[in-house]
Amino acid sequence: MSRSALRLTHPSTSLLSLPPTLRPAIYTTAKTTPQQPHTQPHRHASTTPPPKKRPRTALFFPGQGVQRVGMTTDWLAAFPRTVQPLLDEIDATLNTNLTRIIADGPNSALTATQNAQPAIMATSILILRVLEREFGFRTADRIDVVLGHSLGEFAALVAGGYLREPDALKLVRRRGEVFERCSRGLGEEVGMVALVGEAEHMGAMVAAIHSFLGHGQDDAASTPAVEEVMVANVNAKNQIVLSGSIRRINELLTHLRQFAGHDPRAVRLKSDSPFHSPLMAPAADLMRRALAQESPTAKGEDVVMWPGRIPAISNVTARPFESKEQLKDLLARQAVETVLWHDSIVYLHKEDKVRRWIGIGPGKVGRNLVGKEVGMKGSVKGGGVWGISDPREVENVLRELDATESAEEED
After folding, report:
1. Biased composition, Basic residues: where in the chain (predicted)?
2. Ramachandran region of residue 233, left (φ > 0), alpha (ψ -120 to 50) or beta?
């Protein structure tokens, strides 16, 4: 074994501390060299089939808002032989140099919906492919269920084996372009506002919101679309997101504070598009048409593969997809309906008995929301909540996964 490979087998040595040009060769040498007892390879490869009984494990992906310029740069530097071909495939699939915008910006270009959405999805799947190809992580063997927050649902469907990655990228790009068109030329400011309140009063506040907006009433149908406001996301037991006319949202907040006895903290989100609202109906129509066609990259095949490899949770129902046709319907409706993220986590935690949660993709918002609901951060007895958005997080997360692999499930 070479001296470099010997150094690599020492658990205190980090592959990321080596020059990028040496990493692939050093990893290959260390990976193929027999290890001495009581030593660990540097890369915490997960190649041993999991035991039959282990904590149920969920893999989840983030939505829009987590994008940042340079979010693939460290991954390319650490794993160039795996990442560069993936980046090339992204640009070839979309016939545009999206990866340059991801790497170099400007930020204004990256945050545009038609760029941000495929960029986030592509980066999330890129990280998963690094785990699989560089660390031997067998997704279908180690993961019991997949889900994603809003846009993240597309990455989850790729990971779960329901959508081909190139098809998903094309769908997300076209969907983002329609989102952009829907938001322009409305003559009124639109966007999204998060409301954070006390968990025990959230139900009453949501009821007051629906009452003020006239949801479920006959006269609600006469409200101009641009003035409509919807509960776009139920993110946590104490947080929802409103989407639509900013003027109308401000009127609603005044009503809640002056007449309904609620005083939530309101946070304007970095979004100029009212996602998950009636204004996005053209995007839902596009998705219905696109999902009814054959795959653009696998001629003669359906764009949706059924069954998938891993059960997947729908944003719209907070339950697993049950059929190919239902998946197509719900994925299209997701553009205009509420994302039941909190309900999904509660279902998986309390009914499906998921005890380990792995967030993959840029940012930390998703893992924080999950961690608060299930009462875990990092590794705990019988499970944990982890996130991988940076190459330096991989080895520790995989090591903690292996440490909890045979932990007994708790009731």
Report:
1. 40-56
2. beta
Query: What is the pTM for the complete model shown?
Result: 0.87
Helix (H, G, I), strand (E, B) or coil at 183: helix
- Amino acid at residue number 300: G
Q: Which domains does the chain have, with CATH numbers?
A: 1-43 (no CATH), 56-183+280-403 (3.40.366.10), 190-273 (3.30.70.250)
Question: Phi/psi class of residue 384: alpha, beta or left (left: φ > 0; alpha: ψ in -120 to 50)?
Answer: left
Report the SS3 class of residue 297. Answer: coil
Which of 150, 271, 344, 379 is flagged as catalytic? 150
Question: Is residue 4 among the annotated active site residues?
Answer: no
d(CA 360, CA 68): 15
Q: How many helices (H) and strands (E) does the chain have?
A: 17, 9
How far apart are the C-alpha atoms of 130 and 24, rounded to whole Å?
A: 13
Strand bridging mode 56-61 / 354-360 = parallel
> Tell me: the pLDDT tens digits for 338-391?
999 999 999 999 999 999 999 999 998 888 889 988 987 777 777 999 999 999
Active-site residue identified among 42, 44, 262, 276: 276
Q: Identify whether 17 is a catalytic site residue.
A: no
